[in-house]
Amino acid sequence: MRLKGKAAIVTGASKGIGSEIARQLAGEGCDVLVNYNTDMEGAKKVKSFIEKKTGRRAEIFKADISRFEEIKAMVEKAIDCFSKIDILINNAGIALWTPVFDITEEIWDRTLDTNLKSAFFASQLAAKEMVKTGGGVIVNISSLAANGSMDCLIPYVSSKGGMTLLTKGLAVELAPYNIRVNTIAPGTIDIERNRKTDPKYPDDWIPFIPLGRVGTVEEVAKPVIFLCCEDSSYITGQNIFVSGGETDYVPMPRSEFARKK
Length: 261
What we know:
This protein is of the alpha/beta class. The chain is built from eight helices and seven strands, in the order E-H-E-H-E-H-E-H-E-H-E-H-H-E-H. Helix 1 packs across helix 7 (217-228).
């Protein structure tokens, strides 16, 4: 076990990528605070899995991480439970598909508060605790959207682009305290939210992915675990895309050569 005895917070851990990260952290020896906002049953399932399959401790905590006071309460809960915080995974996020002229102040604020403000203040508060124990690791879960624009997602891409620079800023300022900060940016991943958003998902997306398939939550969680381990002890301030080559593909009409293959 590469993370035996460590204590972690994972935000948005009741489903999808966050739940898999929580499970894999526990599998490597972590005790985990499983944060959720609306899906209590999902959080309970993650807690049950961790305790039964790994023998590690898991606690669930409801918090709307767009609100500072609830972020603070979450961090305090982790300290109450584990007496320390070694790892913070800022995973929780929302994407509200809205055309540019329909974006309201409420949509903008809700997206930026949930995706970006929360990552900063959770990092700030957790880092204060990490300093007391000699260091730690923060991993921000961003998106392929941080690399460019997407239709009807201006607030979302703005928040994820901001997360890239937030990571770099935190990495520089927290390095003297032995706290490493990195970002994992998933591409098209097979999660329930994506299937609900797009009825043609994932078929319409596959032509834009050089590896010819969508990714899995397991494939996102594995590099997160790597960044939490001593195997990555000299890596900080980086944005790692987990996208099957999607970030490298420039859509264009297929050449005659390609059509013959």
